[in-house]
Write a structure and sequence with these properties.
Elements: E1 7-10, E2 35-38, H1 41-50, E3 69-74, E4 87-92, E5 111-113, E6 119-122, E7 125-131, E8 136-139, H2 141-144, E9 155-162, E10 174-180, E11 187-192, E12 197-204, E13 207-214, E14 223-230, E15 234-239, E16 242-248, E17 260-266, E18 270-278, E19 293-294
Antiparallel strand pairs: 1-2, 3-4, 4-19, 5-8, 6-7, 7-18, 8-17, 9-14, 9-18, 10-11, 10-17, 11-12, 12-13, 14-15, 15-16
């Protein structure tokens, strides 16, 4: 099978209402002078800049932490007018609120180490924390769930994070870790692993397994990771609203410690906005939609 490629097509479309002489009776058609070039991010940006549009900004915060919200991103027009949309929207956090655990929510029970002062606010992101090195949150399993309940066998984890420029784009530290109280060396963790990579690590029974994820954190924008664990052996992962991979391991390969304590942000330096646990599998696609819609066709040019 021949490799697939993406092309950008340049052409003039004849309008029969305006250009009667050159439009065929069954037109309109592309003119014969149409041309195509291979798509690349640089070509894409150059085209939009030529017609007056700047690149899209990052996505803003979701309007709801669960139950279905909306988020917006914007771009600016550098000419007196630009065709197209200057604002796009998409759905986000469409998973059910029932049973969700959100340790970053205001008023949530949690323990800061060494002190909450190392978890600062993030401008324009009301639910986000800016973490300094050597600070983390620890939550006892007894505070995570109602009396008599343990950590679920099936669950979905949602995380939104951003590295800061001073990191050089090199991510490190543990975003999320479930560690057993009774079994030394038994844990399930999501760790950053350098530039553009994270890994899901499970350790137990004297062995460990890692699943690597490609996450372009080096652009210093907000990124979204959703991990769904099924039947202790199947992992489905979405990154930035798109399916990344599904791994089917041997039976009980991801046996989650039932007496787990939760640790968030250990050795991580950056911004953390979302850390939500849903006690249900198959929810990873609900963090944010890959389908976007234009919501603002009229844009005021950016003031220079």
């Amino acid at each position: 099978m021949a490799p697939q490629s993406e092309l950008v097509v340049f052409a003039r479309v004849s309008d029969p209402a305006v250009d009667l002489e050159t439009t065929p009776p069954d037109g309109p058609w592309l003119e014969a002078t149409a041309a195509a070039v291979p798509w690349s991010l640089g070509v894409d940006i150059a085209i939009w800049n030529a017609v007056g549009w700047a690149g899209w900004g990052g996505w803003g915060p979701c309007s709801k932490t669960c139950g279905g919200g909306r988020q917006i991103r914007r771009r600016y027009c550098s000419k007196p007018s630009c065709e197209g949309y200057g604002e796009q929207g998409r759905s986000c956090n469409s998973f059910d609120c029932a049973g969700t655990i959100n340790p970053l929510a205001p008023g949530a029970r949690r323990n800061f180490h060494p002190a909450q002062a190392r978890w600062g606010p993030v401008p324009d992101r009301p639910h986000a924390f800016s973490l300094r090195p050597n600070s983390y949150i620890w939550i006892a399993s007894s505070e995570l769930f109602a009396s008599g309940k343990t950590f679920p066998r099936e669950f979905t984890l949602f995380i939104s994070l951003r590295l800061r420029p001073e990191s050089g784009g090199y991510g490190q530290g543990t975003l999320f870790s479930l560690r057993s109280r009774r079994r030394t060396g038994s844990f399930l963790s999501l760790e950053l692993a350098g530039r553009g990579a994270a890994r899901l690590v499970h350790a137990g029974g004297g062995s460990s397994r890692s699943i690597y994820l490609a996450v372009p954190l080096y652009d210093f924008r907000w990124h979204h990771i959703a991990i769904s664990v099924h039947d202790d052996n199947t992992v489905r992962i979405y990154v930035d609203c798109r399916w990344l991979r599904t791994d089917v391991l041997e039976k009980d390969a991801l046996d989650t410690p039932r007496d787990a304590d939760l640790i968030i942000g250990y050795l991580f330096s950056g911004d953390l906005e979302q850390m939500v646990l849903v006690p249900k599998a198959g929810q990873a696609h609900k963090q944010c939609s890959s389908q976007v819609t234009g919501v603002a066709p009229f844009v005021t040019p950016r003031e220079i």
